[in-house]
Structures are given as structure tokens and as C-alpha cells.
Amino acid sequence: MIIGVPKEIKNNENRVAITPDGVHALVIKGHQVLIEKSAGVGSGIEDTDYELVGAKIINKNTDVFDQADIIVKVKEPLESEYELFKENQTLFTYLHLAPNPALTNALLKKKITGIAYETVHPKEGGLPLLTPMSEVAGRMSIQIGATLLQKYYGGLGVLLGGVSGVLPGEVVIIGGGVVGLNAAKMAVGLGARVTILDINKARLAQLDDIFLGRVSTLVCNDYNIASMAKKADLLIGAVLVVGARAPKLVTAEVVKSMKKGSVIVDVAIDQGGSVETIDRVTTHDNPCYEKYGVIHYSVANIPGAVPKTATYALTGSTLPYLLDIASKGVVKAMLEDEALLAGLNTYKGFVTYKAVSQGLGIEYKSPKELLQTI
What we know:
Blueprint: E1 2-5, H1 20-27, E2 32-36, H2 47-51, E3 56-58, H3 61-67, E4 70-72, H4 79-82, E5 90-93, H5 101-109, E6 113-116, H6 131-148, E7 170-174, H7 178-190, E8 193-198, H8 201-211, E9 216-219, H9 222-231, E10 234-237, H10 252-256, E11 263-266, E12 288-291, E13 294-297, H11 307-328, H12 330-336, H13 338-342, E14 344-347, E15 350-351, H14 354-360, H15 367-373
Parallel strand pairs: 1-2, 1-4, 2-3, 4-5, 5-6, 7-8, 7-10, 8-9, 10-11, 11-13
Antiparallel strand pairs: 6-14, 12-13, 14-15
Helix pairs in contact: 6-7, 11-12
């Protein structure tokens, strides 16, 4: 099978979808790997590193898309890439389709087999292809927020850890999943006072056990969000509904009540965002804006800023699934692996993930039934 890896074109997206060890694993199984020229440079991987393990370097992304059976990416395709797809091609990447009707329609039009990293979901639980980047984004959200709180970025001028005789900063994290957990680890490490809100009381109990009293936990509801947001120096949006558009939990009225110069980092922005006043996706070139005196950060590819870490963290998890798809064929691989089947979002012109169907108002088709009948 021919696997194509184009260079990422999203603003300041320096990750790449495969590393040399991944190429080597595919090549020794008899597959061909096409890498667009300079695709790995942002992650510290030279073209020669790929060539040494058997990859073929391709000068233009159009040729990568044209020749490959499977396109492997990191981030969702942008509009300039929509017309590059071949009909019935397989796409393996983060898709985030629920808030993106244009991309969804493009995949349906070309009958793309769209497998989303973020919805690959084993029966025993967990999100193995989302977790590595959630860890990175959660940890970075505190690093970013701490920087933006500095006065010359427009922030309050608060040091999250405080110093002797001065209270530390207040960090409020909405969502206690992987992003929230990792944000809390970083914030606690800096010495901040941390509160995590989540709707799952069992998860809050787990977090209490993990942090042994160093973090406060609170049931997530409108009243508690409003109450804690007023106190926050840094508010982290860490909400996830798998494959679905993120709920708007922080209203405009809540934001208006926050301290002037406080900071919001919404890690949920790639699923539409959980903060009502975040009305745009920003970029690493121009990452934040101010509204009601509060600094809003809404970059959708946070891990792209630390590609050396993020690329290796991601590709170590995606490679076993990619090897399975390449060796067995996409249909057989999905029918034999329910985790991979759960990743299927589009197939043969149909939406095959319920949360995407509901979010966009497009008819849903059962993926297993489609695979077995078409």
C-alpha cells in the first residue's frame, strides 16, 4: 500500500504525521511511503532521515495526494487541500468535524474514508490517539496562561506561584479529563491554587486521590462556574464531548464578571470552544485578543508550538493503527478492531459518527453496516 505524508499547512503547524522509525516499520512490511519535501523539518527530521529508512521524498503535495492510497496527517485538511483528495481515498488524521461543515461536505463529496484520531476508542475505554496531544495541550495551557498574565502582555501582572508573603494565583480548570489533569499538574507544580470543575463525581474523587488535597474539586454547574470564574486569574477550558461540538459553558455574562487582565485559554477550541466570547480561532502568529478586559487565547493547534515533543508523542500512538490499516486494508482493519471502527467519521459519502451527524444535521449511517454491505 502507498502511504502519503504531506507537509502540514496550518499556521505554525510544525508537527509531521510520521517519524523515521514509523517509515521503517511500514517499509519492512512491504509498503511504500511518500513524504512531501521538508515535511519533517519543523520537528527536527530532515528529508535524508526519511530516505535512509526507505521513504521517497516528493516535491509537491499534489503528487503525494495523487499517488497515495492513504493520506496521513496531523491536523484536519484546510480548504486548499479539499480538491487534492482522490475519490475513495483514506484519510487518517485529527478531523474535528462537528464544528466544520465545509470539511465534512468535502469528505462526503469525494467519498473519503475519514478516520479521526480523536474518536478512535477502544472498548476498555480511553482515547489513545487523542491522549498524547491532550497531555501536551493541557500542560502548555498553563505555560501559555502564565506568560499572558505578565503585564506587558496585558495581563494582571500575577505570578502564578506567588512568593513569600504573597498569595499565589488562582487557576480554574473546567473539565477534569486528560487536558484538565495535565493542566492541574503544571499549575500545582508552579505553586498556584487550583480548582477543577467536572460533572462526573467519580472523576472528581479520582482527582482528589491523585492530588492528595493540593487541588480543590467542585461539581461543574452554571452557579459554580460563575462563582469560580470571578476569582480566576487563569481559566482553562478543558471540556471534551468525544467527537461532538464543545458545549458553551462559560457565558458572556460570566466573562464580563472576571477580573480585568485575567486570562482564558480554551483548549476545546478545535471542537468549537467552550467559552461564549471566543468567537474566532486564532493562530500562533496572533494568538490572543481582549474582550471585556479579559485576554482570550484560542489557538486550535497548541501542540504545534512544541513539535519535537508532540510529533514523537503522537506518532508513537498512531503507528500501530496505521500498520494495521496498511497491512490488512482499511475495511478489514476496521471490522477486526472496534477501536479503529469508532474512529470512522465518513465513509462512501455518509457520516458514520453520531456526534458529527447530530452536530451538523446530516443523516447518520451505521459504520459497521456500511462496511459489511458496500
